[in-house]
Amino acid sequence: MHLETARLTLRPFRAVDLDAFAAINADPEVMRHFPATLDRDETLAAMRRYEAHRAAHGFAMSALEERATGRFLGVVGLQRIPFDAPFTPAVEVGWRIERAAWGRGLASEAARAAVDWGFGPGGFAEIVAVTLADNQRSRAVMERLGMTRDPVEDFDHPLVPIGHPMRRHVLYRLRRSS
User: Fold this and answer.
1) Which of 19, 61, 124, 169 has minimal CB crowding within 10 Å?
2) pTM over cut 0.85
């Protein structure tokens, strides 16, 4: 899956992305809605997981690059949810973008391209997104995408330890238009 929008390119990860992606994953503000920041080795492992997912399924979380400059901005894309929950199996849209790029509509633009691919060539009937209830930035992107939430479907994330304050997540859904 290689996608382009007016301002952005979503593409497979390259080795040269590692340092920039590691810096994003080490930023406490970017990672404030995740249980922990990630170091360089954990970032490399994530990149390898994304590319293994792409090899297995033909789509994945992708490197996000600014078309005008070639600057690495983060990660946006689709992935199969890798855990069991009441709503799985499911395909998720997700994003993580460097703080300097926030507030410019880039997450919405890139996520829209990923969702459009998912409902078009991907052939998915539904795409979901998950986050913490207080992650207002991500929830706003989900809502701009047309995703909706039913509070009855909020869930305890099985990969977050019991008792951890970030265990409870909200679920947003978007169905393909007929």
Assistant:
1) 19
2) yes
